[in-house]
Write a structure and sequence with these properties.
alpha/beta, Rossmann fold, 13 strands
């Protein structure tokens, strides 16, 4: 018969509730993201889908999030307010403009330093930030799956070199290979017919990302393109606000991906222009969870800029 002390040791908790919460908030902290992703407390482990028609600034939103991740909190006495962490950008559309990213990053450095010249920036800091940006391009789902399966090794190696871990994993865009995957044939593997389909590919993508998140706690931001016919006006947004979650597009991703997503924000170009320079205005609205408000923003040299 077990002694009383042995029983007490067996039922003794490993940690208190306070210790558990402290550990969780340390391992999976809330991430200070720039607009329009600033309204909800997002943390490592969340999967955010940025949904919108073509040319609705989804990639710009990802770029701005990446810049906030790779910027330091402080550098040579100047506050930049960044996360000082690695960011991984997986380009599935194969249209990423690295020159645009570098332009946006330089603008951030110039703004924070408050230098009189609008062209001077700290080149050492710029290089340090770009080294924390990991860019990967995939041309089909097989390359995407291979990338996910080898990403753990790449992130471990990058962490050893940079001395910091990863906070953001960005996928642009998750539905890029939809039509290719729908037409996948069955393959004969080792004498057995193994079915390759959109469903099986998506299941593998979700499983591989879940495994990655266990080792590298990070926030997943995935853009998803809808039909151009899903564009809606500012008046329609105002009328819909407060009516609860609703689809603004025809869902085409398999249910395994839909259930994997924890947050969803809809982005679209409006039918109005801003007063200055007649720039196109974009609208955002959180669909899941539903928030009873929407934001307007424009895209300029500084990136995504909220307007009233």
């Amino acid at each position: 018969m077990a002694s009383v002390s042995a029983v007490k040791d067996w039922i003794k908790p490993d940690e208190t509730a306070k210790e558990m919460l402290t550990r969780l908030f340390t391992e999976r902290p809330f991430l200070p993201l720039p607009p329009p992703l600033h309204k909800l407390p997002l943390r490592a482990g969340n999967v955010v889908e940025i949904v919108g028609p073509p040319s609705s600034a989804k990639t710009h939103i990802l770029m701005q999030a990446a810049i906030s991740c790779i910027l330091p909190k402080e550098w040579k006495g100047i506050q930049f307010g960044g996360m000082d962490r690695l960011a991984v950008f997986v380009d599935l559309d194969c249209r990423f403009d690295v020159l645009r990213l570098s332009q946006l990053l330089k603008h951030k450095l110039i703004q924070a330093s408050n230098k009189k010249s609008q062209t001077e920036y700290d080149e050492e800091l710029f290089a340090a930030c770009m080294r924390r940006f990991l860019y990967i391009r995939c041309y089909d789902s097989s390359e995407f799956l291979a990338t996910l399966k080898t990403m753990n090794y790449q992130l471990q190696k990058k962490k050893e070199i940079q001395g910091v871990g990863v906070h953001l994993l960005m996928l642009d865009s998750i539905g890029a290979f939809y039509w290719m995957d729908r037409s996948l044939p069955s393959l004969l593997v080792g004498g057995d017919r193994k079915s390759l389909s959109l469903q099986s590919v998506t299941e593998n993508v979700v499983q591989d990302i879940q495994k990655l998140l266990l080792v590298h706690p990070m926030l997943v931001l995935a853009s998803k393109t809808t039909n151009s016919g899903d564009k809606y006006s500012a008046d329609e947004v105002r009328r819909n606000i407060g009516s609860g979650p609703r689809p603004k597009h025809r869902e085409y991703m398999p249910s395994v991906w839909q259930s994997f997503v924890t947050h969803r924000i809809h982005v679209a170009a409006s039918d109005e222009n801003s007063d200055h320079q007649r720039q196109l205005i974009y609208l955002t609205e959180w669909v899941s969870p539903s928030i009873n408000s929407s934001d307007k923003f424009i895209v300029n040299d500084d990136g995504v800029f909220l307007i009233s």
